[in-house]
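Journal club prep, shared notes

We agreed each person brings one worked example of a sequence with its structure written out as tokens. Mine is MSP domain-containing protein. I'm keeping it raw so we can talk through how to read the token line rather than staring at a rendered picture. Sequence first:
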Amino acid sequence: RDRVETVKVGGVWFWIVLWIGLISMDGLVQTTPSELTFHLKEGSHAKTTLLMRSLVSEELAFKVKTTNPKRYVVKPNAGPLRGGQELQIEITMEVLDTLPEDLHHCKDKFLLQVAKILGKEKLSAGDFWSTVSPDEIKSQKYKVHLVGDGDEMEET
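Then the structure, token by token:
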């Protein structure tokens, strides 16, 4: 889904690769895609990947939440992110016996939260998140798009 653009600056042509759906969370991390798409097939798991890259040298902590935790498994769903590290977060949807009737009106969402660890390295994950003030936590919401077997995804 990346796109290549050509731009002429001062008589020189440049080729630029654009990450479609790239999101920057206040300069801490970049993520792609901007929305999570699951291609559904009856009787099979549907999977998607959220790519997260640290833009800072400090160690970060992250966690992923969903509005429908019984429907999805997120691995890893929380943990540290070293400075400059790239991490793939795999999201797997439960096996569906039949496709939902409201396929194109899915209200499921995910929330990625990121914070600098800064001196709290020895705390457990639960203790860490309970000690971080809300203004230190950067959050990004992701909508879920469900695409049925044979459907074409609509561009928005």
